[in-house]
Design a protein that fits this description.
globular; 42% helix; alpha+beta; 23% strand; two-stranded antiparallel sheet; 4 helices; 2 domains
Length: 223
């Protein structure tokens, strides 16, 4: 009988081992569930930070592309906001020169129109040749285009005699007589200047040979 009792005890212990396994299994699942939830939250928070940083960068990128880079010279026509113009009248060069003080004009549309016409003329230069010019009373305009307080370009415009213009920026000057291709490229030059300052209408130049005669119809061409 005692041997039978000895055999029963191991059977009871063997029955408890599966019970311990079944009892530990939910604990393992609980630990795994906590770890999984933590990983899920970390992944979600990481996605949120990526989206947030991307959305914050978009307006800055859009603003950078929308703002034009500062330019000078003829590349900055659409950035001009003002022009300062001085009127010179050379009655008896170089003895008697009358000059009005500079006047600043801030009509943005008219400023850009004049700037654009000057640039159109100098980038389509007329060929050098002898010209029969109207009377030259020495009327000239000197000016500077600005974007706020930033200088963009300077110009000169001789509105009488052999009409001629120049545009200068960064030590480089483009100039031309205003006839032929230059006049065709800038047909509103005199009108746009007149809108701002009331400039006199220039006369009409007529070609007369091969060379440039800046002195008028009765003066020999410069050699």
């Amino acid at each position: 009988m005692e041997r039978t009792a000895w055999r029963v005890r191991p059977n009871r212990m063997m029955d408890q081992r599966p019970l311990r396994g079944r009892a530990g299994f939910p604990r393992i699942l609980g630990i795994l569930g906590i770890l999984g939830a933590g990983l899920l939250l970390a992944a979600l928070s990481g996605c949120g930070s990526v989206v947030a940083s991307g959305s914050a960068a978009d307006p800055a990128a859009a603003g950078a592309t929308a703002t034009a880079a500062p330019q000078v010279g003829c590349a900055s026509v659409n950035q001009a906001t003002a022009v300062s113009i001085r009127h010179l009248l050379h009655l008896m060069v170089p003895v008697n020169i009358k000059s009005k003080a500079s006047t600043t004009y801030r009509q943005t549309a008219q400023v850009r129109a004049l700037f654009g016409q000057l640039c159109a003329a100098v980038t389509h230069p007329a060929p050098n040749r002898v010209m029969h010019c109207p009377a030259d009373i020495g009327t000239e305009y000197l000016g500077t285009f600005y974007d706020g307080s930033r200088a963009l370009a300077t110009f000169s415009y001789a509105a009488s005699g052999c009409e001629r213009v120049s545009v200068s920026t960064a030590g480089k000057t483009l100039s031309t007589l205003v006839y032929g291709p230059a006049a065709a490229a800038a047909p509103h030059l005199a009108t746009d200047l007149d809108v701002l300052v009331g400039a006199p209408k220039p006369g009409t130049m007529q070609p007369g040979g091969g060379g440039v005669n800046p002195g008028g119809p009765n003066m020999p061409a410069n050699g």
